[in-house]
Design goal:
The protein is built from 2 helices and 6 strands; from the N terminus they run E-H-E-E-E-E-E-H. The two termini are 28 Å apart. The chain is elongated, with a radius of gyration of 16 Å. It has 154 residues and is an alpha+beta fold. It has a single domain, classed as Thiol Ester Dehydrase, Chain A, CATH 3.10.129. This is Thioesterase family protein. Pfam families: 4HBT_2 (PF13279). InterPro entries: 4-hydroxybenzoyl-CoA_TE, HotDog_dom_sf.
């Protein structure tokens, strides 16, 4: 299984009154990594994959330890845990080499901006996402929760 690696800089404004990255800022870090994964690295030269838009249907975040400001970026690793007809689940770890600060997941729904409605995942998108798909220890696809079924299904 491949993981997408994103190097995310920390900004002084990310800190809260306690001197560590504010919990809400971690969502921005996840967004930066997700956009880098889905759009900048989309398959094909000039491919329209993922370019039509997407919406976040769900975030789930487990804060493991505080992250304090420093000049070195933090690493955000992303991979796919579930692909359905009209949604996908991306898992993340925000980490350094020796420790994890956050584990999270996001359910993303591809969206047709012109039609103002969700759309199905294309074959090209599915092929790209499968490169980052993880399997559970029992051999079944994904680690997505049962209540994440086809969010906003088309």
């Amino acid at each position: 299984m491949a993981r997408h690696i994103y190097s995310c800089p920390l900004r002084w404004s990310d800190m809260d009154a306690f001197g560590h990255v504010n919990n809400a800022v971690f969502i921005s870090y996840l967004e930066e990594a997700r956009i880098d994964f889905m759009f900048r690295l989309a398959p094909g030269d000039g491919s329209p994959s993922f370019s039509g838009g997407s919406v976040v249907a769900r975030h789930e975040i487990d804060y493991k330890r505080p992250l304090v400001h420093r000049h070195e970026p933090v690493t955000v690793e992303s991979w796919v845990t579930k692909i359905s007809a009209a949604s996908l689940t991306i898992a993340y770890e925000i980490k350094d080499e020796d420790q994890v600060y956050v584990r999270a997941s996001t359910v993303v729904v591809p969206y047709d901006l012109e039609a103002a409605r969700p759309r199905r995942i294309t074959a090209e998108e599915r092929s790209y996402l499968m490169e980052y798909m993880v399997e559970d220890a029992d051999g079944t696809e994904g680690t997505g929760r049962a209540d994440e079924k086809d969010a906003l299904a088309a």
